[in-house]
Amino acid sequence: MNRLKELRINKSMTQDEIGKALGVGKSTVSKYESGAVTLPQKAIEPLCDIFDVTSDMLLGREDVYFSSHERTQPDYVPIPLLGKVHAGLPMFAEENIEEYIPHSASDVRGAEYFYMEVEGDCMTGDFIPEGARVLVKQQKNARNNDIVVVRIEDEVVLRHIKYVGDHIVLVPSNPAYEPMIVTGGDVEIIGRVCEVRFFV
User: Fold this and answer.
1) Do 99 and 10 contact (CB within 8 A), yes or no?
2) What is the pLDDT of residues 18-40, one digit of tens each?
3) Fewer CB within 10 Å: C terminus or N terminus of the chain?
């Protein structure tokens, strides 16, 4: 599979913009990205120029994607950074992915991971300030007191999880906020926080 989609997203370009650069329509670009249509040879060179990558990188023959100005290495993989999740859209909808961040492949083997940028100060007691990015391992369950990403209806929150009888209690580490007791409804554990990073 080629890397056109993740390269495009990382450069904050739309399918329309790529289509105009190649002289094709948005629907054709979508087919290139999905693999329904093979990237034609005449499109490879201009795409490599746009993204400042090699043809091997564009065509997925190299294992790693950094940014358009970073060197690639075979022991890194791209992890999607999710922005604010929009109501009505799946977590990993294209509209929610802001960019891809390179991460050591040895640390993320055997599972799916994503980054989320922290909003608010609910978890400052765990040294997770607003603006930090947390690496999340996708999983549907968690142990008592894990820090997790939980979806409640259309809202996504970051909290410690505690199990009290049949209830789930989502506990912030900032004492200025009260725990949330979840008794039912549309609730889903999205994943467990494995790492906190600070990007400048």
Assistant:
1) yes
2) 999 999 999 999 888 888 888 88
3) C
